[in-house]
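Q: What structure does this chain adopt?
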Amino acid sequence: MAKNIVVLGIQWGDEGKGKIVDLLTRHVGAVVRFQGGHNAGHTLVVDGRKTILHLIPSGILHSNVKCFIGSGVVLSPAALIQEIEALQGSVTNIERRLRISHTCPVIMPYHTLLDKLRESAKGKKAIGTTGRGIGPAYEDKAARRGIRFSDLLNEDVCRSRIEEVLDYHNFVLKHFYHSDTIDADNLVRESLTFGEQLAPMIGDVTVELTDCIAQGDSILFEGAQGTMLDIDHGTYPYVTSSNTTAGAASTGSGIGPMLIDGILGIAKAYTTRVGSGPFPTELFDETGAKLASRGQEFGSTTGRPRRCGWFDAVMVQRACLVNGVSSLCLTKLDVLDGLDEVKICTGYEVDGTYVEGFPDIARLSTCRPIYEVLPGWQAATAGIKTYTDLPQAAKDYIDRLENLTGCSVDLVSTGPDRVNTIVRNSPYS
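A:
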């Protein structure tokens, strides 16, 4: 029986979603990205070979699977072409298997320039964006002045749309940021060239996905970033510019919510965060440094070091609630190997007063985590593929996370390679 599953992160991103999407792709006929842009980075390791993707869905490594970029994604043509070229020779039939929604908003050079200028102007108050134009592109989309992919296929339409939007953005660049402006003629020529290169891959994603379902194929919806970076439900304003939660799978792909059968939430066995913003369980000691080193905690998109801390069960429980998570995948369990003890945040307090539930951003910034301490395990979990082979203390840790979050941990990742995964209950079983 066909099943359509959403896979998304339920922390601050970087949970290892790409690996799990790649693992589950063998059960599906199509994988679709539904939000974000090339600010996301999904790292796949197959037989020791590493592949990093930013826009192309993680299912692309499976030669018989169709991959879609939905209308909820803001897309840089230059970045996509560069990614396709990097995969040539190792991945077959990319152009025939990849479809880009004709309604995808296009990230233009002025978006990237504005993103960097804004962050620079904010100084210490900067959000910590990737500087790739994601936020400004979503702003233009909401303001109804964005350029869509279909606009790149017609010279008259392309010129008209670009000249109109540049009247606005060049004014801001020149008079507010005292920056160089963007030349309309050069941008039109570049945009039309991108349109010509990508035209064979542009299509109606909603119709093609509906056809896949009608033919009995399962679809996997691949999220980017994480729940706590959601523009509505995350730790605003230290968030991304799109909806990273499960509801966006429907709006960002054009597939009705009644056709989605399950939500698989991905969480690390600890917590990480890139960029600014509150992080109650963040560690500034030797243990935090050890987690960062063992977990190779550097952003796959920017290379920035990730902040590390203990597992925050309050935050994950909130994310499970917001997304309607049906099961969990716990990644990087092996990073905790050898620790004398492991801690789980089970609540917060402010000025000695217990805080009920997950607080607003103002209180989250001043929260002190309340920890439950469990024994660590000295035996290695790295590479283990059967749940019964895990050390008892590791099993106890997983059991406690299930109890605190209210969700079953159905998959456990014990290493970066596709095969280093314990499947207790597949969402496609």
